[in-house]
Amino acid sequence: MDCQEFRSPNYRKTIADAYSCNWISESAAAEHLWLRFLYESHRKGSWYLLRKNFPCLLVECMTEGVLGHEVGDRKFLSGAGEVIVIPQVPWFRFFSPSPAESKRFAFEVQGSLVPVLGERFGLSGPVVFRTERMELYRSLYDRCLELFRAKRAGTETEVSSLCFRLLEMLGEEARPFPERRLQSRLNPVLEYVQRHPDADLSCTALARHFGCSTPTLNRLFRSVLGESPQNYVLRYRMSQADHLLRTGEDSIKEISGRLGFRNPFYFTRVFRGYFGVTPSAVRRGFPAGEEEKEIR
Fold first, then answer.
1. Which helix H or strand E contains 57, and what residues bound it?
2. How many angstroms separate the Cα of 86 from the Cα of each of 42, 55, 162, 196, 231?
3. Dist. CA 272–CA 116, nearest whole Å
4. What span, in angstroms and rounded, lies between the C-alpha atoms of 149 and 155?
């Protein structure tokens, strides 16, 4: 059966930025591993994508936010710094567990050698793991993208070698899906943070609001998202601040108040520490995440 893909009605509207590139090898599939698609996306909002009879081994590298995935009757969450691997299965679904931002880049590896090498590297079933090698995965992505863009004949061998290296790295790090069910007590906490960014969102205040102890809330965040409540709150507030500065007309003082910062000077200090640039520089169009240079 052919691959089928089903998307939520608002699928395209949630894309803040996306890039994809594909290149089909002319060689016999048995001779090489090859990449059906490379893609990168930055999303804001709730969406889902259902795929049936997908012919590839899919590798998703999360760099920001949270992604939900469902294979069979099992649902899981993955956060920034984690890699998701889904082999050729009858169907799977990706979805946003919240309207917050998410960023990822991905590989779709195809070829008749994929199942064989999948077995060899222990990738015969869905796996997710936290990696310290995200920069290395990124370098593989960038090199493959460079080859795709060049569209030169005779590059099949290098692409195949890069795919083999990718599977080898995955095999070294991969472990089975952890039991991190979406139906957890964390969902209402995340919703509360996103609806009330101006509230007291300290770990103590959140634990009190939801009737649990501070250590319990800490454990819940770390088991589901792999980070502390304080880190999640800061990440959400900073992503909202960046969005409001680029798209809205509110003053920096008004934005800082909306996001729970009573002192705009403290907000500026936190923002610069997080992004490396000041809020006023971002408002002028300076890209967040790059070192701010003195303008002479």
1. strand 57-64
2. 20, 11, 18, 35, 28
3. 49
4. 11
